[in-house]
Amino acid sequence: MQKLFIPLLFFFSFQLDAQVDYYSADVRNCVEEYKMRVDSLIKSGQVEDGLRIFEAGPDCIIGKTMPNYEFSDLSGHIEKLENISRPIILKMSSSWCQPCLAEIPAINRIADEFEEDIKVIVLLWDEPAKLEELAKKYSDKVTLVHRPGKAKEKNLNFRSFKHYLGFPASYYLDRNKKIVAVKRGAAAPGAEDENGKIMSLEEANQINYERFLEKVREML
Predict the structure, then answer these.
(1) How many whole angstroms separate alpha carbon 142 and alpha carbon 154?
(2) For the chain, what is the radius of gyration of the CA atoms?
(3) Torsion-angle region of residue 205: left (phi > 0), alpha (psi -120 to 50) or beta?
(4) Measuring CA to CA, how many Å separate 181 from each of 17, 21, 96?
(5) CA terminus-to-terminus distance, the chain
(6) Do residues 76 and 8 lie in contact, with contact meaning Cβ atoms separated by under 8 Å?
(7) Using one digit for the tens of pLDDT, what is the confidence trace for 58-75?
(8) What is the pTM assigned to this prediction?
(9) What whole-number distance in Å separates Cα of residue 206 and Cα of residue 212?
(10) How far is C-alpha 41 from the geometric centre of its chain's CA atoms?
(11) 4-23+64-219: CATH topology
């Protein structure tokens, strides 16, 4: 059975290392500018350029260090981001996002193949009651994090996640918790590929797997 985690606390040290480049209000503004740029390109007919920029995510967050998350599972066990020694894939997902569901076979394959090398965490926009059936679709090598209830002051929850870019989105963190890449979107069966061909389930699975694999190889 997969581990189900609740984001519990998101805290900053008041004595941060000056050499570590954490997120700031400037980065939040940059993300908003990125969203507007993508929207402008697509609306002006430059769809290919808009989608390329959309999938890559905002440049300003690359190289930034994620502050330390602290997760607590349902039994009360606490796990801190800083204690994970492996590179991390942190995915944003939900049970009602079809492209997110289409990524599950690929993320399971990555988690199984790179069990000793990569930590895979999926942050789901779902209440615990809705997670039981969805959890069965994931490999037990994937850590699932569900949305908590009412947010408390200074606590992390999905709705206040400052790096949030929608579903699906994957953040690739190196061993020092620096973001080395972001990838948005996913291939889904029934959608068109880059050549305008309708993708089968097998083709979508392979495309998603290769996208994950490319970034994993860059981290290792």
Answers:
(1) 27
(2) 17
(3) alpha
(4) 23, 15, 25
(5) 27
(6) no
(7) 777 888 887 777 765 544
(8) 0.77
(9) 10
(10) 24
(11) Glutaredoxin (3.40.30)
